[in-house]
Inverse folding.
């Protein structure tokens, strides 16, 4: 099944509260939106808000069907997930904003930027894509969402990032497995829309040197999909390389955004 995004076809009504703001900043100079990975939630970024400049506001986005949004039905396509986040982003366009997405979150950030461009709306001043390979007409090389239960559990363990107690406890695994499998299906059945132009958004790409999911070559291939490619930042580690160096990653994000928008290097006038 091929999932493509349309600027006119809306299938999933957005819900209020998709974004969690741990540290509201009135008059913020920038809003930074963080998109989480498959099977995850905003908790992967739970302590990131204080790692950025004090006049930046960090908003953590949750896909439906997990955590504080567990009462909502999960999205089954990238298009639905973009629909879900769309209006909340549009309402936050009263000041500069930026996107950072990890794995599935990178796919959503990329397609959301495409949606905004197609609608003639403001674009992020910068985007960071983490552990997310560049678009390919053939789609993802892996089909983990089709694996039997035991093999899926081993694949998730190899990726890192999932607490060992979830993988070892049968009851916990049965709770999380549908969310993980559903998100993997969303990612692995997505296909890029033919003729999609290169991103106009300044783009930085991040990854781990021991990632078993996304190769360095697939990360570097983003350079062909962006008019302003700011480079590939690789760090020791697996698919979740940033777990052990959150401040280092936050500093890199801050530097790349400031290189794109020099005005953000100066103290903002808070209003």
């Amino acid at each position: 099944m091929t999932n493509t995004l349309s600027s006119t076809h809306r299938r999933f009504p957005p819900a209020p509260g998709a974004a969690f703001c741990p540290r509201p900043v009135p008059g913020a100079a920038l809003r930074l939106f963080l998109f989480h990975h498959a099977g995850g939630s905003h908790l992967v970024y739970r302590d990131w808000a204080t790692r950025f400049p004090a006049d930046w506001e960090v908003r953590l986005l949750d896909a439906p069907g997990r955590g504080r949004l567990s009462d909502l039905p999960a999205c089954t396509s990238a298009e639905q997930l973009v629909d879900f986040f769309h209006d909340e982003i549009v309402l936050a366009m009263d000041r500069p904003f930026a996107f950072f997405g990890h794995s599935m979150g990178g796919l959503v950030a990329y397609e959301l930027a495409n949606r905004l461009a197609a609608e003639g709306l403001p674009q992020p001043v910068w985007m960071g894509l983490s552990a997310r390979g560049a678009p390919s007409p053939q789609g993802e090389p892996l089909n983990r969402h089709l694996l039997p239960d035991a093999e899926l559990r081993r694949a998730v363990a190899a990726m890192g990032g999932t607490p060992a107690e979830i993988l070892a406890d049968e009851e916990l695994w049965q709770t999380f497995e549908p969310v993980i499998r559903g998100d993997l299906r969303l990612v692995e059945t997505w296909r890029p829309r033919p003729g999609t132009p290169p991103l106009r958004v300044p783009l930085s790409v991040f990854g781990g040197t021991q990632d078993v999911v996304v190769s360095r070559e697939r990360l570097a291939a983003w350079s062909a999909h962006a008019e302003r490619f700011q480079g590939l930042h690789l760090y020791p580690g697996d698919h979740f390389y940033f777990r052990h160096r959150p401040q280092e990653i936050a500093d890199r994000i801050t530097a790349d955004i400031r290189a794109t928008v020099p005005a953000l290097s100066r103290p903002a006038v808070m209003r």
